[in-house]
Structure formats: C-alpha cells, structure tokens
What does this fold into?
Amino acid sequence: MRSVTDPTLLTRARNVLPGGVNSPVRAFRAVGSNPFFVREAHGAILTTTDGDDLIDFVMSWGPLLLGHDAPEVREAVAAALTRGVSYGAMCEAEVELAELVVELVPSVEMVRFVNSGTEATMAAVRLARAATKRDLVLKFEGCYHGHADSFLVAAGSGVATLGLPDSPGVPADLARLTITVPFNDEAAVAAAFQEHDQSLAAVIVEPFVGNAGFIPPRPGFLEALREHATVAGTVLIFDEVMTGFRVHAGGAQALTDVMPDLTTMGKVIGGGLPVGAYGGTRSMMELVAPAGPVYQAGTLSGNPLAMAAGLATLKAAKAPGFHDELDRRSSKIVATLTARANALGVPFSARSAGGMWGAFFHAGPVDDFATAKLADTEMYARWHGAALERGVFLAPSAFEAAFVSTAHDDDILDTALEILADALADAARA
Ligand code: KE4
It folds into this structure.
C-alpha cells in the first residue's frame, strides 16, 4: 500500500496552518484524501517525504514549463543569489524580463511586475476602472482570477472545488459590481453588454479556461468579446496567468490572434518563483503610478531571484518548435486516455492546448461551467486516488487543468499513460 501522507507532519501542519495548507486546493478535500508532503522534485518527478516518486502533472499549477529543478533556472537563480536576494531598487534583470515579455506577447507594449497572479488581476481591473471611469466588471462562471474580492463571484478553481461561489467576507456592494455569464455563451455576453453597455469597465476572461477543468473557447467566442468590448469602450482583459507562455510563446492571444487591451500574467513568467505581471498598450500602462495616477506597488516586485528564474524560463520557451513539442505531448495524453475510456465505456472528454490539458468524466463537449459541474467528480476522485497509488499525481480537484513540461519525455509519458489507463479501469470498476 503506497503511503503518500506523512501523518505526523500533517498533524503539525493542521495545528498551525488553516486546513494544514497554504492554498486550499492542496488539501485534497475535493478528492477525499489527505495531502502528501514533498521532499524534493526534479524534472517531471516529485519525491514525497515517504520517499515515493510521483510523475507530476500539476507542476506547481503551471509555472514549471521546463520541469522541476530545471538546470537553466537553477543556475540562473544560483548566480543571482551571489548578488543578494532583494534590493528595493531597480536592477537590470527587471528591464530585461520586461523587454522579453514585450517581445513575446503581441498586445503588450509595457508591463508592470507584481508578485502573484492575484495582484496582477487586481491591478488590471483597477486600471480598467480608472481608464474608463466605470465600475462594473464582467467575468465568466467558473473562471478564476485569483482571490481578490471582486473575483470571488462564481469563481472556479479552489472556490468551485470548495463550493464557495461567493466567499464570506466579500461585501455585497462589491460583489454587485461583478457580473457573471456563462463562458462560451455569445448570446449571454451580448445581453450583458445590452443591459450594462456604458457601465462596463472591463471584461476579464481566461481565454482558455483552466480553473473549471480545461475548457477551450468555441470558435468566434473570443472574437465576439473583442468586438463587444471595442464597441462599448470596455477594457478586454485576457487573464493569461495560466495560458501565458504555455499554450504558445505569446500566450492565447498569439494562438487565437485576438488582441486584448490588458493581459495579466503569472506562473510561467516567474519560472516557479513568485512573479505576476500586467501589461498592455503604452497609453493604458502609462496611467499606472508613478507615470500616472493609478496606484499599485509592491515590496518584492521585480525581485532579482524571481526575475532570473523567469528570464531563464522564457528564453528557453522562445526556441523554435518549443510549444509544438509541448502540444504533441499533451495531444498524446488526450488521445491515449480517450481511447482507453472509450474502450471501457466510460463517459470521458479530454482536450488540450500547448502544454495544458484536461479531462472530464462526461461525454462532452464540456463548453461551460454548468456542464463541467455535471461531470462525475466521484469518478474523478477515484481516478485521482488510483493514479496516486501507482505513482502519478493529477490535480486533486476535477476543476483544474493538467500541465506538461519539457521534462515529460516520451518514456515518462508512456509510463504515466499506462498507470493512468490502469487507474481508469480501477475507477470504472468501483
Ligand atoms: P495566484 O495569485 O495564485 O498566483 O494567481 C491567481 C490566478 C489568476 N488567474 C488564473 C487564470 C489562475 O489560474 C490563477 C491561479 N491558479 C490556481 C490554479 N487553478 C492556483 C493554485 C492555487 O490556488 O493553489
């Protein structure tokens, strides 16, 4: 019996950390089991404190495009470490990473670094409200944009997992400023613009949803958002914290050729160290203090170690064919698991884009959160547990995406797919 939990450590953790974790989804509550603790991680492998090796498809929830402990990242951070850990003043690495982001992300002419995706989306909405002098924000059911108050309305990820569509502590007056409609529903978007036309400051969307499970945009959906936002003078924000540099070197906007007014970034941009960012047109970004009046600040923003990790990661991600190869690996996972589920007669739909993929125990297509919630989450929990017992770590929630890296080579994928297929059969029998 593979033990993936260190009971003493878990007891200690629960004694001093809410739920024993520093982020809810890590508590494994949605899959009805207990979390393991990590001793170390290299490449595609996590090693638990029990000494068990797990093939990892969570990959720190997306940042690790080059795998755990990637040599390029380790060496860059080690070199930066010899020069200190934080300055509270500018360093060249901040300028270099900003120049690289501007080079890679088509709609971004100027960028500001923060320390998380949540900070990035908070700041982007504040900027959109300042630029338009409007208050309302349109988001999509099941999309998660971090834990700022305005977004904890019909959110995805841990909020969906925990069934906390409107988290306590969010003032009703603030929640009222957030309108939610179903993702991929052009009619609902048109109606929302019809009703709130000149009051909408921003539309914020995960262009490929990764927090309600993995849900790609229907053809034309992002184009429709762009059109409505342009006509209404509303700021279109692509929350690319998850898709950025993962589905394409330039993110979902490069993959779909739909240009937002603002882009939020995180995860990959820091290569595993805490970096978030928001960027857009020069005219919009020059509203941000101290260039303009919109205030936003951060003690560790542009941290030199984090900049070094981000630079090493994005420089590797620029390589020709980098994302085609990640896409090949994700597509292989989707095709193999779909074939196995079909052979077992299990309702299953899986899709992928670049280095991210996801699967629902639902015949599909799963194009919105309401449908995603009809998927068999009990089956997912059984699959998760059976896979973990055999040495593969999937997201401990059906409302998440999965991630591959350059470290997930074909040998590792073949081993993982055999395990996942066997775990499917196990879960289907239960
Ligand atoms: P952070 O504040 O967690 O860095 O980023 C928030 C965020 C914003 N936008 C999108 C599209 C995101 O996916 C996220 C964070 N994603 C979750 C995973 N579903 C982080 C994992 C966690 O909460 O522990």
Observations:
- The domain at 73-317 is CATH 3.40.640.10 (Aspartate Aminotransferase; domain 2).
